[in-house]
Amino acid sequence: MGRYFRNLWEGIYTVLVGMKVTWRHLFTPAVTIQYPDVKLKLPERARNRLYVNMDDCIGCDQCSMACPVDCITIETIKSTPDVDLGLTSVGTKKRLYVSRFDIDIAKCCYCGLCVPPCPTECIKMTDVYEFSEYNRKNLIYSFSVMTRAEIDQAKLKLAAYEKEEAARKAAAAATRATAGPGAPAKLAPSASSGAPARKPLPPLPSRPASTPAKPATAPVGQPPTPASPAEPSVPKTEAPDNPDTKP
Question: For the domain that residue 92 is a member of, what is the CATH number?
């Protein structure tokens, strides 16, 4: 009989303990927000969808190499010397066209490892977390601003420049082979560079054929030997005719 009432009390006590939280919130005003019209403010260091500022991107591929799931795809095209792509906001010179910069958000694990390696701080994580899609292909975000025509034009210009440089190097190699191994290498000026051709140097002045001999110096410790006086030159005279001799 005593065990029956003890089990009955334990059951009632357990229910009362479980309802304690319910009774406490029963008389508390509700704090439910009207989502999506009202949204909570996210923390400052929240990691959500990625964003890339292409004006500061230099195509270094550091973020792609740091990504553990390979969700970043970058393709670049080298610019020719006559093209100025400008500077980034931190003063870094841009030397590459970024023809492709895709991020597959469906693969992203929001680790944030791609943000610190960026030298120009062009990639960062935003507080946007509402980007669900019905089609998975719509989760691939393309940030490149180059059109198809601009990409083809940049590739053609680079191919022409590389062909010109290869021809110039081949001509320089042929010139060295013709001149011999000891001749200095002479490179033809590139047509793409705006530097003028170097003018030939003027010839050096010719050295006189005969130079006066330097006076001999006596060894150290000995008096100089006096020079012998030159013998006077005697002019040659023809012998007078002998009056006794007749032809």
Answer: 3.30.70.3270
